[in-house]
Amino acid sequence: MYKNHVFISYAHIDNISLSEEQQGWISRFHKTFSVFLSQRLGTQAQIWRDQKLQGNDIFGSEIVDQFNETALFLSIISPRYIRSPWCKREITEFCKQAESDGSLILNNKSRVFKVVKTPIDRDGGEEEVLPAIVRDSLGYEFYVNEDHGPIELDPDFGEAYKQDYLRKVCILANNAAQLIQSFDEQISSTDDQPPDPAESALTTPARKSVVFIASCSFDQRDQRELIEADLRSHGYRVLPEERLPSDDEETHRNALAPLLDQAHVSIHLIGHGYGAVPDGPSHQSVVEIQNSLAAERSRSLGLKRLIWLPEAISSEQPAQLRFLTALRQQAEPQLGADLLQGSLEELRTVIHATLDELEKPKPEPLIKASDLADTTAPAGPEARMIYLICVQQDRKQTMPLRKWFKGEGYEVSLPAFEGDAAALREVNQSLLRDCSAVLLFYGSGDEAWQRSVNMDIRRAPVYREGRPLPPPLTYLASPNSDDKDDMVDLEEPNLVDGRQGFAAELLLPFLQSIS
Asked: Of 211, 340, 408, 449, which has the maximum CB count within 10 A?
């Protein structure tokens, strides 16, 4: 066990307050971080921070002695920190000592946490004074870029800054607590007797999947951080763990490839901005490059992908408009992906459902394929059930279809319309899981509803345990709308125009396709 959970390294100039009534930025951060970390550890966090030594004091044993008794080193980066010989010696000495006994990296995670209070000039080479493991780490950015330059996250600047500040400290504390607990478990295991192999086999949890979260434009960084923090809190390894080079396209692709080779799932958050464009022949942003390479890995290695777009997303940037159009309309950018649109909570639900499905043990077949009779008819309760999706106002209007399908030997299930949101979502997901086909009844529902339902249908493979779902049929009904006219004029596939009234012959091709 280490005496100190965390050593905070900082430049004293960064803790000067604007008035006597205010706390310095470092002092406030220390207090807030200590509260969050203590709550997550379940015990009072022991955090060491030099509060008396100044830049002209001698770098002596008082500082060095703390390193051997500290689990994590937290450096608060700023222009002054980079220029301070004292700060550079602290971080260099800690890394040197940790490297000497092989403890700098634990479970693929560095014991050095980088908090960027104020951004520094990367292009000017200022970061070169830092050890490589710190220089290349992603870090925690405690600032926002605004029109006139970077603004530090300071609760005194207003409620929005306060909320962002607290969220960032919370994420940092979560990740720090996980690593500290890993240290404690590792130390405890060396003191205990080796476990019984039979007992270990029963109690060892299934191996967690590796998740790659792609780069995103600035407007989606907060959402990306929340998804990453959520995954790490559930024990998943999240890539990248270091900052990817973004100046040169070839270098970026070379660094990206081995990460995608390790990943089981890739997540792509698409925003309003196009993102940084490295120097290279494609003139594509890192967001588009990463989506393209992940699509290739999906084809070659079966990488599972989730692409998320906010509701009603658009862009004033021509390059991003082109990319958004390609994502929605072309097969190649969507390859191997579920294209999702909705709230961040809905995305989180789909992510965990996808990961749960990947990690679920595959049951041994009870009957060998060679023992089965030659049959093409689907088996099970879902084999004769059609999930007819409509809005509640269309319940009566769907009656002719439901009667006809019933006469053909099919059960027809409608969505659940009443109940709390969680219960409705669970029921409708179970219908997607158990049905043999889906019919989208596009009548009184508006265009946004129709698109939202199609997004849900695309998620169906997550719930169906690998069982394929035939292409859904869209059935147009009154009232008329420009969107419905466009679908007919564009000759959309798997479309029936029933606005002139029910005609059974229009549904016969659909019935044949699912029989």
From this structure: 211
